[in-house]
Automatic annotation (TrEMBL):
<protein>
    <submittedName>
        <fullName>Sporulation inhibitor A</fullName>
    </submittedName>
</protein>
<dbReference type="InterPro" id="IPR036916">
    <property type="entry name" value="Sda_sf"/>
</dbReference>
<dbReference type="Pfam" id="PF08970">
    <property type="entry name" value="Sda"/>
</dbReference>
<dbReference type="InterPro" id="IPR015064">
    <property type="entry name" value="Sda"/>
</dbReference>
Amino acid sequence: MKIMSNEQLVVSYRDALKSEQDKEWARLLKDEISRRGLKPFKNR
């Protein structure tokens, strides 16, 4: 996996969720987000 900043990681995850073809990529990104302790969405 390419080394990404926290912001790039969250943006890539959001884009992968919008795309129906990137389910495996979204899962990998979600795992990395949880390892870093990030929250990909704001609480509203």
